[in-house]
Amino acid sequence: MPITRPLRLILLPFLVALAGCVATPVAQVPNAPPPSPEITARAEQAVDRLVAVAQRMEPQIEAECRARTTGRNCDYLLVVDDRLDEPPNAFQTTDRAGRPVIGVTLALVGEVRNADELAFVIGHEAAHHIADHIASRQRDAVIGAVFLGRAAQAQGADAHTIQQARQLGAELGSRIYSKDYELEADRLGTIITWDAGYDPLKGAAFFMRLPDPGDRVLGTHPPNALRIDVVRDTVAELRRGAGAGNLARP
């Protein structure tokens, strides 16, 4: 997880837009006024906290990645959106070389109330790569696109309608197992957070301050209460000495 400073933290001026765990760059606003010294100081303190947490999390993240995968790149890169006017956000993606990337905005780092919450967010995003969720969602999208495209074709639809059906199928397909993937990342993220010496239950309290997505059909995220239950159950297993390597998928 290369970063400048003690951990070689990389500050990148881009906006993270979650779209199937893909970061979408956005142009900066021209002639924006510079931040005040007070805001800059708070931002620097937030980054210092991130560096400290990342330093403890890195060995556990990469060890878990190597233990649970074969031939996958486990050399994580941590990036931070250093703009002060962007909302709290976190993401996981891979760069062109296949290197796993965990990204957070400064607003998110400032929003968390303690190191446990920040550690849990990082562990959750790291788990997405270990579980290969980006590739899984891409496969789900392809299956959905093929299914609806063929259905439209069988009904005699024209080329434009078939293409629209494929696009809709891809969107629906990418959402079918999205909530399952989030719960899986919560579970594995709990293990990583625990192994790094943080409290996942305190960390998962961050969920309770987020808008609850509810249990919507084809929603991208499960209800907050269900996510807390997964963390609680995983911690209970860890406390009973089940061992992280023996924990099953949710």
Description:
Mean pLDDT is 79; it is low at 2-30. Helices cover 53% and strands 8% of the residues. α4 runs antiparallel to α5 (159-176). It has a domain at 5-130. α1 (37-68) links the parallel β1 and β2 (77-81). By secondary structure, the chain is an alpha/beta fold. The protein has a four-stranded mixed β-sheet with strand order 1-2-4-3. The two termini are 27 Å apart.
Task: Give the helix/strand layout.
Blueprint: E1 10-12, H1 37-68, E2 77-81, E3 90-94, E4 100-105, H2 106-111, H3 115-130, H4 133-154, H5 159-176, H6 178-195, H7 200-204, H8 224-239
Parallel strand pairs: 1-2, 2-4
Antiparallel strand pairs: 3-4
**Largest sheet data:** 4 strands, mixed
> Share of helix among residues?
40-55%
Q: Low-confidence stretches at least 5 residues in length (pLDDT < 50)?
A: 2-30
**C-alpha-based Rg, rounded:** 19 Å
Write a brief structural summary.
The chain is built from 8 helices and 4 strands. It is an alpha/beta fold.
Jot down its keywords.
single chain, about 250 residues, alpha/beta, 4-stranded mixed β-sheet, 8 helices, 4 strands, globular, disordered N terminus
